[in-house]
Description:
The protein is an alpha+beta fold. Helix content is 14%, strand content 23%. The chain starts with a strand and ends with a strand.
Amino acid sequence: xxxSRQKNVSSxxxxxxxxxxxxxxxxxxLKGKIxxxxxxxxxxxxxxxxxxxxxxFKKGExxxxxxxxxxxxxxxxxxxxDAKNVLNLYRYTGDPTDDGYLAANPxxxxxxxxxxxxxxxxxxxxxxxxxxxxxxxxxxxVVLDF
Length: 146
């Protein structure tokens, strides 16, 4: 999936520069061409195991020998390898876990009362679970065909 790299770091909001800060120019500028960068490769393996069980509801004679149906019992495993695929990222760093604001503005950290707490809370704020694919899921089900 292509995306456009960003030349300047966002204003520290963790959302790619959508926060309004007065007296600060926060327009993003491109680094390279439009859609000139690509997200990392993705891989995903799904698996489904099922078993059909024939069912006879009524025994009859002659032409009407009974009604048959199938009961299908299945186990479906999505994302078998539990791959952590990157779906989105911060355009400045090209990284899904770091937007580059703290590294580009070290004075902002030092101005805070507790720099370590600020850094930890900021990193928690920019940790976006929607930037990664969902983990392994296991589904068990039954299908009755009649």
